């Protein structure tokens, strides 16, 4: 698979081989928040297959159609997964977390294959803030929730759960022990930083999870959106630095006096696509809550200020 020609080299519904045990099927749900769409990963080359992040339920494009930026439905994706699986048996359906662009297709895929839904814990949270990513899937019903370090095995492959809360409290990554690959869901992506949206998104947990991945020795990351990451340590180090820089920007803004989040976003995210202002505001809020817990900031109505100011 030629990642250098991304995204021109991919089509919704096509199966693309990344390494002997890893294939990708792209869902037809592109958007400003999902990039080219949700990537469903198939693990296994023999009689048993694991499916990671089966994606959105619903319909829209036909299998094999080019990406359509204005169509975010997801028609035929389960059928595309089944076509890619072929005569093999699906033995595990795993979700990294329960946003609606990741987990809803788990139920119809289970119905079609009989495979158990294994992985992250259920989480159905009502968030009244301006969301930039998908809302939670209230119908997700796993047969088994994996603990950190717990493994799922099949013919020729082993996947190990790596707990990475932050983007959501139930987020898991999955390590393929045979090749050193890590399926990172929305926790680490190359095309964009992850949205950390309170009340469930937690910046301190997110930073700790980034540090956890930095200390690992994974060879490649396969995220749920965007190209593979072939230099994972370098990217994670940069992401940690980026979040620390954002924190410094917030402290600088508040050094001039109390400010509303929207005013800080305007200063910190110059030139940002207006459709992403909500995402930026949620991440700023997550930083402010983290600083508040550390005794640095306090909220006053719609504004925030430094405690010693």
Description:
This protein is an alpha/beta fold and 309 residues long. The protein has 2 domains: 3-230, Metallo-beta-lactamase, Chain A (4-Layer Sandwich), CATH 3.60.15.10; 244-306, Arc Repressor Mutant, subunit A. Helices cover 25% and strands 22% of the residues. The protein has a 7-stranded mixed beta sheet, with helices on one face. The protein has a 5-stranded mixed beta sheet with strand order 8-9-10-11-12, with no helix packed on it. A 3-stranded antiparallel beta sheet has the order 13-15-14. It is elongated and about 65 Å long. Residues 59-75 have low confidence and may be disordered. Residues 37-225 form the Metallo-beta-lactamase domain. It comes from Sphingorhabdus arenilitoris. InterPro entries: LACTB2_WH, Metallo-B-lactamas, RibonucZ/Hydroxyglut_hydro, Sec-metab_biosynth-thioest, WH-like_DNA-bd_sf.
């Amino acid at each position: 698979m030629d990642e250098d020609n991304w995204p021109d080299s991919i089509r919704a519904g096509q199966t693309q081989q990344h390494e002997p045990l890893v294939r990708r099927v792209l869902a037809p749900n592109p958007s400003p928040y999902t990039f080219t769409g949700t990537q469903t990963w198939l693990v296994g080359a023999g009689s048993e297959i694991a499916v990671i992040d089966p994606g959105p339920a619903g319909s829209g494009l036909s299998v094999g159609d080019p990406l359509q930026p204005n169509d975010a439905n997801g028609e035929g994706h389960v059928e595309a997964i089944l076509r890619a699986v072929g005569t093999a048996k699906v033995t595990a359906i795993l979700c990294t977390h329960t946003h609606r662009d990741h987990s809803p297709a788990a139920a119809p895929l289970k119905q079609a294959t009989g495979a158990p839904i294994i992985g992250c814990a259920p989480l159905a949270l009502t968030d009244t803030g301006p969301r930039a990513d998908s809302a939670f899937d209230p119908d997700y019903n796993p047969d088994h929730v994996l603990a950190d370090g717990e493994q799922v095995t099949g013919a020729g492959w082993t996947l190990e759960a790596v707990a990475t809360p932050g983007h959501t409290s139930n987020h898991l990554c999955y390590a393929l022990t045979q090749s050193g690959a890590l399926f990172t869901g929305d926790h680490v992506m190359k095309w964009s930083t992850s949205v950390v949206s309170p009340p469930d998104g937690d910046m301190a947990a997110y930073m700790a999870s980034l540090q956890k991945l930095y200390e690992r020795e994974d060879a490649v990351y396969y995220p749920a959106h965007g190209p593979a990451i072939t230099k994972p340590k370098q990217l994670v180090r940069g992401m940690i630095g980026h979040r620390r820089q954002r924190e410094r920007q917030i402290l600088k803004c508040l050094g001039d006096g109390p400010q509303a989040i929207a005013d800080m976003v305007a200063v910190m995210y110059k030139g940002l696509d207006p459709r992403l202002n909500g995402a930026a505001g949620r991440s700023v809020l997550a930083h402010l809550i983290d600083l508040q817990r550390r005794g640095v900031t306090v909220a006053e109505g719609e504004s925030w200020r430094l405690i010693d100011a």
